[in-house]
Design brief:
The protein is α/β, with parallel strands linked by helices. It contains eight helices and twelve strands. Bound molecules: adenosine-5'-diphosphate (ADP) (2 copies). Belongs to the ABC transporter superfamily.
């Protein structure tokens, strides 16, 4: 099966529909770029897939297994918290604004999910965190606090924090939009390396060069629906 399969996802806020039946699949090892105007539902779809919020209806399959579900509906509310917590660890999420814990250094930020959710012993969690910080090029800043790091470094810590949980799927919500232009490249480089290592990714982005050169497929959102979907060579070179 595809690694991720999203079927007929619907979501409304206050009776205003923001997702009007979204379908897409992502094969293992592929990168899907989601493009489209602000307000078209891209962030919302990521929050549904990451089980941060319930959908109104539809189905999400991860590796062929329905997630966030009771009775065929994507409604996370009735699902026991423990099941959800376990399912969420299979999906890493990186936000526009880093969302690091300000009172924890880089290592402790990366360790946090390991020790709290997966109950990994501290010593082992620390080793894995340091390994992951090395992977994103931050071994030398392992003990820096978020306020001592540039935006690009903070975002790389956030990526390491997601990766250390060994997710099957990584979601990125405009990961470079809050960065100064000169820091965008260092984050895209880490993401490109992840993609070439075979990580399955869904990336909301305005970085067209990234979408063109790294994505396996591009999906264009408009008003809560996918209006066009194609590999980047066809998507960008269409007349
Ligand atoms: P995008 O990521 O494409 O910019 P979003 O998914 O953030 O779009 O938003 C889609 C629409 O849903 C927007 O009109 C937005 O204002 C609305 N929306 C998103 N989250 C909420 C919420 N929690 N409550 C009410 N409206 C929301
Ligand atoms: P993004 O930049 O990712 O599109 P936004 O800045 O639109 O996100 O939204 C940030 C947060 O605010 C999200 O958690 C979203 O659910 C919430 N939100 C967005 N639009 C609305 C809205 N119209 N009413 C209430 N909450 C909203």
């Amino acid at each position: 099966p595809p690694l991720l399969e999203v079927q007929n996802l619907h979501k409304s806020y206050n009776n205003v529909e923001v997702l009007g039946g979204v379908d897409f699949t992502v094969q293992r090892g592929q990168v899907k770029a989601l493009l489209g105007p602000s307000g078209s539902g891209k962030s919302t779809i990521l929050r549904m897939i990451s089980l941060l919020e319930p959908c109104d209806s539809g189905t999400i399959l991860l590796d062929g297994e329905q997630i966030g579900v009771i009775g065929g509906r994507v409604d996370v509310r009735p699902a026991p918290e423990r099941i959800l917590a376990r399912q969420r660890t299979a999906i890493g999420m990186v936000f526009q604004k880093f969302n690091l814990f300000p009172h924890l250094d880089a290592t402790r930020n990366v360790m946090s999910g390991l020790t709290t959710v997966l109950k990994v012993p501290k010593k082992e969690a620390r080793e894995q965190a340091l390994e992951m910080l090395d992977r994103v090029g931050l071994a030398a800043r392992a003990h820096a606090y978020p306020s001592e790091l540039s935006g690009g470094q903070q975002q790389r810590v956030a990526i390491a924090r997601a990766l250390v949980m060994k997710p099957k799927l990584m979601l990125f919500d405009e990961p470079t939009s809050a960065l100064d232009p000169e820091l965008v490249r260092e984050v895209l480089d880490v993401m490109e390396k992840l993609a070439s290592d075979g990580m399955t990714m869904v990336v909301v982005t305005h970085e067209m060069r990234f979408a063109r050169s790294v994505a396996s497929e591009v999906a264009l959102f408009d008003s809560g629906q996918i209006v066009e979907q194609a590999p980047p060579d066809r998507f960008f070179d269409a007349p």
